[in-house]
Amino acid sequence: MRNVLPVLLAPVLLAPVLLALALTAPLDAAALRLPPFSRQVLPNGLTLEVMQRKGVPLVEIDVAVKGGMESDPADQPGLAEVTGELLRKGTASRSSDHFSRDLDALGGRYRIRADAQSTLLQSEFLSKDFSAGLALISDAVLHPTFPESEVKKLLAQQIDKIKATKDNPAEAIEPYAEAFFFGARHPYGRVMSEVSLAHISRDSIAQYHQRIYSGRNLVIAVVGDIDAQRARAAIERAFDSTPGGEAYQWMKPVRLERPGQARLLLVDKPAATQTYFYIAQPGIDAKNPDRVPVSLVNTIFGGRFTSMLNEELRVKSGLTYGVHNIMDEDRLQGMNSISTFTKTDSTGQAVALSLQVLEGLNQHGLKADQLASAKAYEQGVIPRTMLETSEELARLLLRLEMLDFGPDEVNTLFQRMNAVTIGEANRVARKYFETNGLTFIFIGDAKKIRAQVAQFAPSIKQIEISAPGFGGM
């Protein structure tokens, strides 16, 4: 659900700019506004959103398919992602090579990924090539043939990729953390692995596509230098024949229970010179009524370079090059987790200091000037990361639709931020940043760090990094 390295490195690279933003006064609540767009639902249930944005002769055509990781069968984690990856590997009218040639001829960009609640296809073309680009995208979404040879090739590539991931603890720590924290009964804990991929076949992929890729589960966002009426008419023609199908039924909310005592997973990577670790606890979902104050508290605690965690673990002690606290905000309740790495010999010290900072936040909360700084920081960063490019705007429109938000989720955000009081901020600091019932996940040399980490939980589950899967499936 998230990539650890960019999260850790980006704050370091952007530190001077972000620090300057953090010292500015909060913006006017009216400064954040979602640009005008149209929304309509076609007769087959497909939702279409079009936002005209002049200035650059490009158009973004993004397609979101409801379901994502949540829709993966319990024994086939990764099915949504694999299906998405295969869309361009052969259609009724184009082979995989033919598709690639057509895409290259247009100079287009095509990218696909699966997240917690959707499979997202992102594409960009020159405005003059909108019709040709749309024809390519609609062909991939609606008419894939899933050739057996391409299925086998992709599954083999994914297995090799997973094995390579285990050679890079910075990437491997996330799937291990998700599998252990959520468990196999939760969709977010069913992580794609070499084990789960062995259960995926061409038939299961084709059946998933037929069931999920229907009108009632498709959302299309078109953003860019394109006439809105023309875009709507073209989308209607391209997707008019799509069967309505059955709407994907979202899971009921799943409440994450805090364990009565700490849990600890140790993934043994012999001869590792660094330890990567997560300290996780139940977080929030995207619609949690406390999401705005939680975000502000998290910014100060570990969401930016000038954070409480980074100040102690990087600046003062030099135990790490970067530490971050990640607050998931997906459709279902997610993790709230400290994520970092340190030298093998300083593992216990880095964990203990992380817990000390966490306890300080929980017990003492924020000060008024820290809360003001968090508001100024977020109000400086958000417009530049959510509303600046057509890609960002299309992704935002699709996220709002997937999570059943209206434009006011954006338009009133600064107003809601400015209304957060120090009392409210400290209430959520006590509620969501606890020090009991934590889940610890480590990747490192077990012989050298087991004794260091044993103090943090009554028992240790140890697995070898070379073992199949990620400790779940």
Structure description:
It is a single chain. This protein is an alpha+beta fold. The chain folds into 2 domains: 4-30 and 254-464, Cytochrome Bc1 Complex, Chain A, domain 1 (2-Layer Sandwich); 37-239, Cytochrome Bc1 Complex, Chain A, domain 1 (2-Layer Sandwich). It is 45% helix and 17% strand. It has 18 helices and 12 strands. A hairpin with a 5-residue loop joins strand 1 and strand 2. Helix 2 packs across helix 8 (202-212), helix 10 packs across helix 13 (368-386) and helix 11 packs antiparallel against helix 12 (347-364). It starts with a helix and ends in a 9-residue tail after the last strand.
Secondary structure elements and their pairing?
Elements (H helix, E strand, L loop, with lengths): L3 H19 L15 E4 L5 E6 L5 E9 L12 H8 L9 H11 L2 E6 L3 E9 L3 H13 L5 H18 L3 H14 L11 H4 L4 H11 L5 E7 L3 H12 L23 E6 L5 E9 L8 H13 L4 H9 L6 E5 L7 E9 L3 H18 L3 H19 L3 H13 L5 H4 L1 H6 L3 H11 L6 E6 L1 H8 L7 E4 L9
Parallel strand pairs: 2-6, 7-11, 7-12
Antiparallel strand pairs: 1-2, 3-5, 3-6, 4-5, 8-10, 8-11, 9-10
Helix pairs in contact: 1-13, 2-8, 4-9, 10-13, 10-17, 11-12, 12-17
